[in-house]
Amino acid sequence: MISYEMIMVRFGELSTKGKNKKDFIQVLFKNIKNALKHDFPQAVVEKRFDHIYVHLNGESADAISERLLDISGIHSLSFVHRLSSDINTIVEDSLSLIRNETGSTFKVRCKRADKSFPFVSDQIVRKVASHILKNTNLTVDVHQPDILLNIEVRMEATYIYVKTIPALGGYPLGVGGKAMLMLSGGIDSPVAAYLLMRRGVSVECIHFASPPYTQIGVIYKLVDLLKALNRYQPAIRLHIIPFTKLQEAIYQHVDESYAITIMRRMMYRLAEKLAKRRKCLAIANGESVGQVASQTLASMKVINAVTNYPIIRPLAVVDKLDIIKTAVKINTYDISIRPFEDCCTIFTPKNPKTMPKEEEVIKFEQTFDYEPLIDEALRKIEVKIISSDEEN
Ligand code: ATP
Ligand code: MG
Question: What pLDDT does 18 receive?
Fold first, then answer.
């Protein structure tokens, strides 16, 4: 059996980013090092112009690749066998490697960076291919081979690899800045968080809590959701905002049919203030057009009117079934469906407005002094940092 000495990490989409590429690779390099240093102390991460390599030094290729598959900005991985640049070894090891694969056709591709190597690429390809043809039942298909064997002859060694494993894609976490994500206990907002992280945007989370109407269990649920998301962002700050007083004031002063609209306007006002304080460049949430009364376009327009801050809604036009599929994939679904009431479900009126009028909303909001309540809520924030290091 042939052994693998390293994993080749490809950037994919990054290659299109021109002058930012160098910074992006540096961030990705750091993210990979951080992700591996604790559990795989022998692994060494090396940054090159075109790829990042993880030298296994005896660590398990499968275990490391599993970790790498959660890191955004990685386009694909290959397990690489490293050997000395000697034509007989190249020919023999290529045969051993291809014997591990399933398929009936193959193609050999060769790059020769070491121009002093006594054979040119074409000669290497021919020698390797004819050895494989002689010793297996495989046939050559240069257009759509089942197995593509890659050989790279470099100065220091030769590398051969076959499989390419597709990875998460997107951008390295952190290169897209930071957003303040509104995290409920539902299915949608953790999926929105994941999509942002994959796009390179790190998140802090804001949760509006309404004790005693909502129980402490909600907070455990949020912590579990964020622990699941630690796979993609190793440390996440959660701001828990006491929202009860504002909600009670709303229900005292506002017609029931407008309560949700105004409650959500308060959420946006709070989120904007906290986002500014925490230097987040955008607010994000799990809203999806049409999902409930407060998420019709007409509602969203009136709710959104309280802020000029950029609002990112990664799920705006995603179907619920697709959202659920992603939630299952990222292991948040089972946590999200645990039966805990959140502040919205408790106060849900029978007939919320799907077409709220902004003049009406403003009239209601003028009937009570909500600014001091907003300031008080912001003063009483509770902060938790949920990080993957905690369990270790
Ligand atoms: P569900 O999966 O049940 O739809 P949800 O999280 O989408 O859950 P919605 O009531 O649809 O809940 O709310 C839309 C968005 O508003 C959420 O995705 C979330 O970003 C934000 N939100 C709602 N309630 C809260 C809350 N209590 N704290 C923070 N954000 C909230
Ligand atoms: Mg929703």
Answer: 65
- Which ligand 1 atom sits closest to the C-alpha of 323? 2
Taking the chain (392 residues) in consecutive chunks of 10 residues, what is each chunk's mean pLDDT? 90 66 92 96 93 96 97 96 95 95 96 94 97 97 96 93 94 96 96 97 96 84 97 97 95 91 96 98 95 84 96 96 98 92 60 85 94 97 91 49
344 CB under 6 A from ligand 1? yes
Q: Is 103 left (phi over 0), alpha (psi -120 to 50) or beta?
A: left
Residue 392: what pLDDT? Answer: 45
CA neighbor of 246 nearest in space, from 283, 271, 279 = 271
Tokens 């969203």 map to which residue?
A: 300
Per-residue tokens: 343: 């502040």
Q: Whose CA is nearest to atom 21 of ligand 1?
A: 182
DSSP letters spanning 29-74: HHHHHHHHHTT-TT-EEEE-SS-EEEE-TTS-HHHHHHHHTTSTT-
Tell me whether residue 220 is exposed, middle or buried, using C-beta atoms within 10 angstroms of its C-beta: 0 to 12, 13 to 18, 19 or more. Answer: middle
Strand partners for 108? 149
Query: Could you give the CA distance from residue 392 to residue 389 in angstroms, rounded to a whole number?
Result: 5
Which residue is closest in CA terms to ligand 1's atom 20?
285
Instruction: Look at residue 270 and give its three-state secondary structure.
Output: helix
Cβ atoms 176, 199 nearer than 8 A: yes
